[in-house]
Amino acid sequence: MKKIMRKVGGCVAALALTVVAADVNSACAFFIYQPELPAEAAKLSKIKS
């Protein structure tokens, strides 16, 4: 059971990193609301400002 949880946990972590990287490089669909981006997530941005 412990082996399975480690594999699943690794997959979840990889998926979370992929989602954050995709979210950093996109804008919010709503014009008014744009949430603040954490400094750690800003490091993953492809667009350097």
Main pleated-sheet profile? none
Count of helical regions:
2
Q: List segments where confidence is low: pLDDT < 50 over at least 5 consecutive residues.
A: none
| Rg over CA atoms | 15 Å
- Write down how many β-strands occur, each being a DSSP E stretch of 2 or more residues: 0
Query: What is the helix fraction of residues, given as a range?
Result: 55-70%
Terminal CA distance:
45 Å
From the helix content, strand content and strand pairing, which structural class follows?
mainly alpha
Q: SSE order in H/E notation?
A: HH
Strand content: under 5%
**Form type:** elongated
* Rounded average pLDDT: 79
Count of individual domains: 1
Please characterize this protein's 3D structure.
- This protein is mainly α.
- It has one domain (2-42).
- It is 55% helix and 0% strand.
- The chain is built from 2 helices and no strands.
- The protein has helices at 2-24, 39-42.
- The longest helix is centred in the first third of the chain and has 23 residues, at 2-24.
- It is elongated.
SSE inventory with pairings:
Blueprint: H1 2-24, H2 39-42
